[in-house]
Amino acid sequence: MRCLDRPVLRIIKVNKFKVSSEANFATSGQSRQDIKCDLLVVGGGAGGCSMAAKFASKLGKNKVVIVEPKDVHYYQPMWTLVGGGMKTLADSGRAMASVLPSDAHWVKDQVAEFSPKTNSVRTKGGDSIQYNFMLVAVGLKLDFHKIKGLEDALAKDPRVCSNYSPLYVDKTFKALQNFQGGPALFTFPNTPIKCAGAPQKVMYIFEEYLRKHGKRDAADIKYYTSLGVIFGVKKYAAVLLELCKKRGIEVTFRHNLIEVNSSASEATFENLDKPGGTLTQKYSFLHATPAMSTPEVLSKCADLVDKAGYLEVSKTNLQHVRFPNIFGIGDCTNAPTSKTAAAVAGQCGVVKKHLAAVMAGKPLPSVAYDGYTSCPLVTGYSSCILAEFDYDGQPLETLPFDQGKERWSTFFMKKTIMPQLYWHAMLNGYWEGPKLFRKAFHLGMGK
Ligand SMILES: Cc1cc2nc3c(=O)[nH]c(=O)nc-3n(C[C@H](O)[C@H](O)[C@H](O)COP(=O)(O)OP(=O)(O)OC[C@H]3O[C@@H](n4cnc5c(N)ncnc54)[C@H](O)[C@@H]3O)c2cc1C
User: Fold this and answer.
1) pLDDT band, residue 31 (cuts 50/70/90)
2) Domains in the chain with CATH codes
3) Interior CA angle at 434 toward 393 and 238, to 5°?
4) Cα–Cα 20 to 30 A to 94, which of 18, 76, 266, 299?
């Protein structure tokens, strides 16, 4: 082990994209470390863990360093089912140590500063990490605080919940069970979010639960979305609007939740088409989806991000537009697709091939990411519309039947098959999305 006493020497190597033969972990001072690695993966969520698994087995023991602060890795897509009482929060989590690849070195900390010009990062605990290549996979953070009164309401009001956080997802089913009638509000914020379908999935589950328990007539279910459409893909939007009509759900477009007054049981929305215009609505139940943004450490690094604070990458291979030895994956990038774990899977194979080529100093392969993403729109306790589409909002359906219909089979996949695929295949670096299945099911035709 050696200390990073001559970092400049190492940077020269980096800029030639040569992979060094050893990784160094040297302690200097109290507990501070100077670490050097071939590949630094920042974030051990869906994207970081899957990609680290691919490269740790390829590059060898400790050549990959992962920085990730959390003890528990959650399969977040399960939280929709947790909110509906179909799974528990415990079902959705595994010890981080058990999912990160054993051949990688885990630094249990968070990156506090990116310095892409010197190929290094600094962690909150004071470690300095020098890398030859870096993959940024820090996801999105939840900005509950941006909605006045929401954090307070989530802490104290049993009628206010959010499937988006492990802190509050357990509240959803309790609030649903305790609901006795009145206005039930569901919101979609004024920022890009992870899984753009989740704010309405919870609503369909809620509605079916009330019907099954004889309480539906007492409820006034309302969906407030900042968007001008119910879903970004025309095919599924038409089906979902029809579903809302059929189930008596009122949809209000271009309204953004800005305040929750728990003691008055009121939610206030800004009208995005009428500057200064607001609408205040009483609630007996409120499911809030928070605004989201990239973690501050990334958004404040002007060298790495676009104007909106997202890692600025090529949409076809997720390589950074200014630093060729940096790639991104998942929710924190500005690839203009819907932010899901399914999109991460679709990105994995492309990023793996392009990053490997850059590492080897070879020309980039022709394979390109088409924006594939998927959203299993759970519509109740046994039905789902399985949306799959690309950058252009064109359906890219895997199964040989119309996935725009509510079906039990796709619900079964969402509830039973997808979690297994995630834990056993994707996080171990073996799942790159359903493209091969799609080709097989469509007899080699189509994309
Ligand atoms: C309620 C809900 C429902 C969803 N439903 C679906 C669904 O049905 N289908 C689907 O495909 N997707 C769904 N998703 C979305 C999916 O979970 C995300 O898109 C996916 O997890 C994104 O992966 P990621 O690696 O980009 O980010 P994440 O998995 O969120 O991981 C980011 C990681 O980075 C770490 N990190 C953050 N900052 C730092 C730092 N400074 N230093 C080091 N590490 C850091 C975090 O601790 C975290 O572990 C859902 C999400 C939610 C919340």
Assistant:
1) low
2) 7-140+294-360 (3.50.50.60), 142-292 (3.50.50.60), 373-441 (no CATH)
3) 30
4) 299
